């Protein structure tokens, strides 16, 4: 499984709108999910070893960011036909088992992943209160390894700054993960 890095942050880029079903079957929208001070959009999936390695930290950070007025949402855009672990039913099971503190949305048509330019799982897009991009970096320096004791929580620190100032850090390190699993003929252009 080849690792892929995200592009650098395009500061001010506007968040593309979406309307996708969550694991409870409700259709959720960008406007509904944004927090008073911003929104973190994460592209994740069930099967990726990078996501599995950091999901507990994602959950921790999502809970803390909510208290700062940052909305959090996760989107799975992978081809579930080729990667059955990423099916909607398995997303529902994961959301229940882990009591995810954020909506987990299914992008079956992969249109939202294309609109965002998502390239890997996990891929993080941190927007301010005006839904202008301020962070496109990694969760932390751990990759697939366990987090180092006392290691920097880069995503959390960036989104806390976004909540407090409306701006993300100038210095950002790209996220790394497994490529989005595009349906045959559906890859980004």
Automatic annotation (TrEMBL):
Thioredoxin domain location: 9-164
Gene3D superfamilies named in the record: Glutaredoxin
InterPro entries, per database record: AhpC/TSA, PRX-like1, Thioredoxin-like_sf, Thioredoxin_domain
SUPFAM superfamilies attached to this UniProt entry: Thioredoxin-like
PANTHER family xrefs: OS07G0260300 PROTEIN, THIOREDOXIN-DEPENDENT PEROXIREDOXIN
Name assigned to this protein: Thioredoxin family protein
């Amino acid at each position: 499984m080849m690792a892929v890095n995200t592009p650098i942050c395009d500061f001010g880029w506007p968040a593309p709108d979406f309307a996708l079903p969550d694991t409870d079957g409700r259709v959720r929208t960008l406007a509904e999910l944004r927090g008073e001070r911003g929104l973190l959009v994460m592209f994740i999936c069930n099967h990726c070893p990078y996501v599995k390695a950091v999901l507990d930290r994602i959950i921790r950070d999502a809970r803390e960011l909510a208290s700062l007025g940052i909305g959090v949402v996760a989107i799975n855009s992978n081809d579930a036909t080729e990667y059955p672990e990423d099916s909607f039913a398995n997303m529902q099971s994961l959301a229940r088992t882990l009591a995810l503190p954020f909506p987990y949305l299914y992008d079956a048509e992969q249109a939202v992943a294309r609109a965002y330019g998502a390239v890997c799982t996990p891929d993080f897009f941190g927007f301010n209160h005006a839904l202008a991009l301020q962070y496109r970096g990694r969760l932390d320096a751990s990759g697939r390894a366990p987090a180092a004791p006392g290691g920097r929580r880069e995503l959390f620190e960036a989104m806390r700054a976004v909540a407090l100032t409306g701006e993300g850090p100038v210095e950002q390190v790209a996220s790394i993960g497994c490529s989005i699993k595009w349906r045959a003929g559906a890859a980004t252009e």
